[in-house]
Design brief:
Length: 272
Amino acid sequence: MDIEQLSKSQIVLLTLLVSFVTSIATGIVTVSLMDQAPPAIAQTVNRVIERTVETVTPAEPKSQSSASAAATTVITQEKTVIVKESDLISQAIERIAPSVVRVYTNNGENSVFLAMAVVLDNKGAVVSDSSSIDAPDVSLALSDGTRVRAFVTARDKESGLAFLQAASSSDPAPTWKPAVIALDRVVLGGSVVAVSGKTIARIAPGVVVAMSGNTTIDTNIADESILGGSPIINVDGNIVGVSTGVSRASSPSAFISSLVLVPSAPTAKKNN
């Protein structure tokens, strides 16, 4: 049939049909492209459903009969809020910053940077990379610039972790903010951020590319961005791994899982 012979109603129906088919095709193409996108791109935007409940209370009624008729009205509204992963990472770094310290040699003004370390409790216990610390005592530099002497109390050969304890005679006593250790295992493709920097804070985002049981987490973070004792965190700001000589021997971008630290430090609630 010639299209010029169609009536107005037939043309409208034909237009609706074409629009419907086009929208379906567009949806199929979009889903296919998202399935083929790398994890780092697919995780860039997370959608969070925010529920807002508004309660409206009517004016006080004049009689008992009208009181029974009046009732509190509850209006529930749902709206979708777009949360960028970059915003989550910024908040996570701000949360973890006070819990990351730097380890230096304990020789006064000539002190040399040795490694990064993570605060485990509010009494000055920290964990770092054993292969980066040879001396029995070192100097810890807190995020606020405070320097505190610390002593190596234990070394774990299997994980390559070194545990240190700050001297209790420091005056004034520093304020320690323990890092939160994630209980959940990371998943392949999960976003992580390494924290490093010898003098200033530096970060290196990446994703988990391999795992070895509950011990080692391998990432795609450039090895030049990783220092001994550098922690990796998730987007909640919780510690999920620490770089040690043992982890770097298996892969330059690998980290010892923070599950090895449990119950040495505060832990986040496990998601069910």
